[in-house]
Amino acid sequence: MARLNIVKKARKAQGQCRRCGAKIKKGESYYWFANRIGRSSIRKNYCKIHKPRPSDMTTSDKLSRLYGAQEAIEDSMSRSVTKDGVSPAFEDYQGQVAQAIDDAATEAREVGDEYRDSVSNMPDSLQNSSSADEINQKADDCDAWADELDSAAQEVRDVQGPESEATKEAHDEEKPEDEPSANDVDGESAYDEVDGIADNVIGALQL
Hints:
Elements (H helix, E strand, L loop, with lengths): L4 E3 L22 E8 L2 E8 L6 H4 L3 H16 L13 H31 L9 H29 L6 H10 L12 H16 L5
Antiparallel strand pairs: 1-2, 2-3
């Protein structure tokens, strides 16, 4: 993967950001990297707001899609509050993270199949070569990650969320005053549990 560079103050205008198309003006900070293709290289500039991500920096379409799947899970873990300062409902947050993990599993399996297809399309003399073995290993790694993603998505869906205020009140009315509520799940810990599952499976991709 290319090495990422940051320029704190551009000496001259640097064209447009590859992500948003905004012009990078003289004096502004920006990111850049160069992908080497054969004997030449292609430089790509990004504005200070849009730091390049791994999916941007690889020249491999398959790796870009896998990194993109990781990034989509990370993006789904945003707990952006509303203008009233209210966090997203736990059920909504739980669902969006689980769906992103499901989507990543689908993408991982598709990429794994494409790796295997590339080996099948090699000349017979290369079918058992070290290059073919390496590609098949990448396919196996994709499948292994997909399996972990499937398990993680279910784990996320199984996380018990905080009770609604109405449900809490009903439980409180039914139990003795000195008995702690067994069903009172701390809201923040439920969000953190989902985040922990997602973080672990993001880091499980090994290629």
